[in-house]
Amino acid sequence: MTKKAKNFKKSKSGVYLSLGTTAFGALSVAKQARLARQENDTLRLIDAAVSAAAIVTGMAILYRELKRLGDDDVLLG
């Protein structure tokens, strides 16, 4: 059972799930940035920018992993 759980992270389904949760996290970062701008809170705005950069980097890594898993898939390029 634990072997299945370990291999799920490296499966296409696991990568798609990770992409979805990372994209969902982007919504909360956008909300945080909007509130920081409304309140003129520079520190929170910097925190939102760093979080956004982390999300972009995470999405790029997950996309690379998805391409690596689907090298034989015509739709992924």
Structure notes:
It is a single chain. The chain has 77 residues and is mainly alpha-helical. The chain has one domain (12-76). The chain has helices spanning 2-8, 12-39, 42-69. Helix 2 (12-39) runs antiparallel to helix 3 (42-69). It is elongated and about 45 Å long.
Summary tags:
77 residues, mainly alpha, 3 helices, 82% helix
Give the tally of structural domains.
1
What proportion of the residues form beta strands (DSSP E)? under 5%
Which structural class fits the helix and strand makeup? mainly alpha
Q: Uncertain runs with pLDDT below 50, 5 residues or more?
A: none
- Output mean pLDDT: 84
The topology string of helices and strands comes to HHH
Query: How many whole angstroms does the radius of gyration measure?
Result: 16 Å
Helix content: over 70%
**Helix count?**
3
Gap between N and C termini: 33 Å
Name the shape in a single word.
elongated
In total, the number of strands is 0
Reported for the largest beta sheet, the result is: none
What is the element layout, followed by pairings?
Elements: H1 2-8, H2 12-39, H3 42-69
Helix pairs in contact: 2-3
